[in-house]
């Protein structure tokens, strides 16, 4: 049965969205009375139904399947029949037995005596076979490694109740999970919510979640929209405290973008803030070595001389030669070769205005690359690990 197109209500400043299938009761769970004809009426209590179904999924003793989700194997319970009715992917996973690999041999011909003995013994044999076969009420346990517990829990809640609250932190995961399990209405709702949830407060959370789901096709469109927003609000995004939570190669990707509208000193401060946070979490690292990964993306010659000498040079983190080249350029632009000012910019020009930033800190073990192209091309996340994800099953 095809899904009903959901209604999406954005709450607050694009922070959350409530997705529902159809409308709820007029007053909470009180339901609604719909007049069809003078002598007929239909009572609807969709809100009450959703609450009862949510309660059902929250009680393990009432469920017949448990998903162990993520690296921590957090249990998420569900009802197989509900999953199968709402998702053809779950229906095939839980109910369809694999087809036999070979054809069945025709039964041997039996004489009348053997047929009589077989008919007389069938009741006893049927009882024995029924005892030997597993019960249809057997509880299943499945392992799901592809999605985070919060994401999968929201998916299960939506399947059971037709309602879920979308949040930027889990939006991309829910969108990809909905796409994988064939919940088109939920996927469309997530895509619509993207338009109103990308803002300064959520942009870093969206980029961070994109790392987790880089191999899924829904990620590309979202990342493109987020990076375009970052370009337009560069100074604001770089000053966010949540900027320090981004992976190193995502920070490098942002700082290297020619479309980024941010002044160079703000870029330096963002790199410094990220590096300090990283060193606090990794005690054996040296701040100068960490920030050195970002210096090639900062055009120091565009930072005013007094700021260079009062704010940057005293820190002892930027090589003296870079400081001197920047000052020399400001005094006489012809006295310094461009390659000594912005080696990364020269390299990008030599490569046709394209660059790939490879993560050396990929926590997921895949060859993940975030590539940024010039203004005439799109920016995207690309994963070289295109192997379809698997769901392990244990009964």
Explain how this protein is built.
- The protein is an alpha+beta fold and 395 residues long.
- Helix content is 46%, strand content 15%.
- The chain has 17 helices and twelve strands.
- A hairpin with a 6-residue loop joins strand 10 (368-373) and strand 11 (380-383).
- Helix 1 packs across helix 5, helix 2 packs across helix 3 and helix 6 (168-180) packs parallel to helix 8 (203-212).
Strand content: 15-25%
Extract low-pLDDT stretches: 22-29, 116-134, 346-395
Rg over alpha carbons: 29 Å
* Biggest pleated sheet: 4 strands, mixed
Distance between the termini: 28 Å
Strand order in space, largest sheet: 6-5-7-12
The overall strand count is 12
* Overall body shape: elongated
How large is the count of helical segments? 17
Summarize the structure in short:
Helices cover 46% and strands 15% of the residues. The chain is α+β, with helices and mostly antiparallel strands.
Task: Give the helices and strands, then pairings.
Blueprint: E1 6-11, E2 16-21, E3 32-37, E4 40-44, H1 46-58, E5 65-69, E6 74-78, H2 80-86, H3 88-94, H4 112-132, E7 140-144, H5 149-161, E8 163-166, H6 168-180, H7 184-197, H8 203-212, H9 218-232, H10 234-238, H11 248-256, H12 264-281, H13 287-291, H14 305-312, H15 320-331, H16 338-341, H17 343-350, E9 354-358, E10 368-373, E11 380-383, E12 392-394
Parallel strand pairs: 5-7
Antiparallel strand pairs: 1-2, 2-8, 3-4, 5-6, 7-12, 9-10, 10-11
């Amino acid at each position: 049965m095809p899904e009903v197109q959901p209604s999406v209500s954005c709450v607050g400043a694009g922070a959350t969205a409530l997705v529902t299938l159809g409308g709820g009761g007029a007053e909470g769970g009180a339901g609604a009375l719909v007049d069809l004809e003078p002598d007929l009426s239909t009572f609807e209590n969709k809100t009450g139904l959703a609450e009862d179904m949510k309660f059902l999924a929250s009680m393990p003793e009432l469920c017949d399947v448990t998903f162990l989700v993520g690296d921590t194997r957090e249990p998420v319970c569900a009802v197989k029949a509900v999953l199968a009715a709402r998702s053809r992917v779950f229906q095939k996973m839980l109910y369809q037995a694999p087809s036999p690999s070979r054809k069945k041999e025709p039964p041997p011909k039996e004489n009348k005596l053997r047929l009589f003995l077989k008919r007389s013994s069938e009741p006893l044999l049927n009882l024995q076979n029924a005892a030997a076969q597993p019960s249809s009420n057997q509880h299943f346990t499945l392992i799901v490694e592809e999605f985070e517990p919060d994401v999968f829990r929201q998916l299960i809640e939506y399947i059971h109740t037709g309602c879920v609250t979308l949040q930027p932190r889990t939006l991309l995961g829910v969108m990809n999970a909905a796409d994988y399990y064939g919940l088109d209405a939920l996927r469309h709702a997530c895509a619509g919510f993207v338009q109103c949830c990308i803002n300064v407060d959520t942009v870093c959370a969206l980029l961070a979640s994109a790392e987790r789901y880089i191999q899924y096709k829904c990620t590309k469109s979202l990342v493109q929209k987020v990076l375009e927003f970052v370009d337009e609000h560069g100074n604001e995004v770089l000053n966010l405290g949540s900027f320090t939570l981004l992976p190193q190669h995502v920070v490098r990707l942002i700082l290297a973008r020619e479309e980024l509208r941010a002044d160079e000193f703000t870029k330096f401060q963002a790199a410094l803030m990220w590096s300090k946070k990283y060193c606090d979490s990794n005690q054996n690292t040296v701040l100068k070595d960490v920030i050195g990964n970002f210096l090639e993306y900062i055009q120091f010659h565009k930072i005013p001389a007094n700021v260079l000498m009062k704010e940057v040079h005293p820190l002892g983190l930027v090589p003296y030669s870079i400081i001197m080249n920047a000052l020399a350029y400001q005094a006489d632009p012809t006295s310094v070769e461009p390659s000594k000012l912005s080696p990364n910019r020269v390299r990008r020009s030599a490569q046709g205005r394209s660059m790939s930033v490879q993560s050396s800190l990929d926590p997921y073990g895949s060859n993940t690359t975030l590539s940024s192209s010039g203004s005439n091309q799109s920016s995207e996340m690309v994963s070289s690990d295109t192997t379809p994800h698997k769901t392990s099953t244990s009964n």
